[in-house]
Amino acid sequence: MATAVAAKGLEGIVAANSAICWIDGEAGVLAYRGIDIHELAPKSTFEETAYLLWFGKLPNQAELAGFNQRLTEARTLPPEIIALLKSFPKSATPMEVLRTAVSALSMYDSDEKAVDHESNVRKSFSLTAQIAMLVAYYDRIRKGLDLPAPDPSLSHAGNFVWMLTGEKPSATATKTLDVALILHADHELNASTFAARVIAATLSDVHSAITGAIGALKGPLHGGANENVMRLLFAIDKEAKLSGADPVRHGLDYVASMLARKEKVPGCGHRVYKTEDPRATHLRTMSEDLGKSRGDSKWFDMSRAIEQYVKKEKKLNANVDFYSASTYTMLGIDIDLFTPIFAVSRIAGWAAHVIEQLDDNRLIRPRAEYIGPEYPVAYVPLAQR
Ligand SMILES: CC(=O)SCCNC(=O)CCNC(=O)[C@H](O)C(C)(C)COP(=O)(O)OP(=O)(O)OC[C@H]1O[C@@H](n2cnc3c(N)ncnc32)[C@H](O)[C@@H]1OP(=O)(O)O
Ligand SMILES: O=C([O-])CC(=O)C(=O)O
């Protein structure tokens, strides 16, 4: 007997037991394995955080060294995948390419079908290293640039910047990206993670689960919002330049008319947080700091004014996607890499959830409340319709 679900979009429905991530949406608390994100963001690294998510505790020095070694050794892509990246039309977006390339990678995995714990951990290392490579390399391929070999002396964040830019990463870029990767690494049963768990639970393979998760992350109601935040800021700035208006002032008028048209402001609102998204707190500071260090805080100032306006008018807070946009732009990163960079981080959380799901698996198969024509409806033969 099915139980009716009144909550549209499964709002408030608890759909899994998980020991990975805890969110208190009323208080604005986010914790990975019980450790507050405000502790992790300034003190941890992406590698330590991924270890925490996968293995349930912070690593000691030897464990971290072993983790780093496995991750750096996994920085390799089959030549066929590089050829595949080169074969895509120049119009292919990095997110489409990432989705397709991760799917294709399963064909080069030594044991694609294996879903035992050790195989899942091995694939988590591979995909974490490879997703960063795919994002960086596709960007360089579409720009006609060479592909720098991964540098094993660099951290995950540092090596990503190196593979993307072909230049030794600055301390600021490495640190900023590392903190951003920590902040984006997991978020309980968000849409992409839920998708990954549903796919994994059919005993399909890890690559299928992550491919599905990437597809879900791409949507503008989820990870895709960070790109739309920057498109919004650019559109406001362009109009302000043309009319000679102040971009901060113009931003408020622009957003006011969006709200009047009942359009959603990207990067604002959240299904779970009813107060400040604790990740936005850190990204706001990083955006402000980058603006100050560049001596040009236009993107931060515009963002801050819009954030405050939307909060006042709609009682909606900035989410993780809001300030990542200006932060990445000030690091010189192209807009359509923002959501792929989200995936560079979130693979840590997706992998943790796939491992957890498969360690104690049961098929995920809810019911729907039927609201169609009343049964039984007679079949009318084609000639009589
Ligand atoms: C990593 C992440 O996924 S974080 C989220 C990224 N997504 C975005 O930033 C896109 C913009 N935000 C949104 O679309 C939503 O706030 C979501 C999808 C994040 C959460 O959505 P839900 O919990 O389903 O709320 P829902 O979309 O039903 O909105 C509730 C009300 O708030 C309004 N609202 C919600 N977000 C916004 C927004 N960003 N701008 C304007 N109004 C908004 C809705 O229009 C709706 O108003 P109504 O009741 O008058 O119709
Ligand atoms: O939790 C959510 O619904 C979306 C989100 O913030 C995330 O995935 O980081």
UniProtKB/TrEMBL annotation:
Gene Ontology cellular component list: cytosol
Alphabetical list of Gene3D superfamilies matching this protein: Citrate Synthase, domain 1, Cytochrome P450-Terp, domain 2
UniProt entry tagged with the keyword Cell wall biogenesis/degradation: no
Catalyzed reactions: oxaloacetate + acetyl-CoA + H2O = citrate + CoA + H(+)
Functional pathway: Carbohydrate metabolism; tricarboxylic acid cycle; isocitrate from oxaloacetate: step 1/2
Highest taxon listed in the record's lineage: Bacteria
Xref: InterPro entries: 2-MeCitrate/Citrate_synth_II, Citrate_synth-like_lrg_a-sub, Citrate_synth-like_sm_a-sub, Citrate_synthase, Citrate_synthase_bac-typ, Citrate_synthase_sf
GO molecular function, one term: citrate synthase activity
CDD domains: BSuCS-II_like
Keywords linked to the UniProt accession: Transferase, Tricarboxylic acid cycle
Active site: H270, D321
Entry keyword Nucleotidyltransferase: no
GO terms classed as biological process: carbohydrate metabolic process; tricarboxylic acid cycle
Family according to the record: Belongs to the citrate synthase family.
Designated name of the protein: Citrate synthase
Source organism of this protein record: Acidisarcina polymorpha
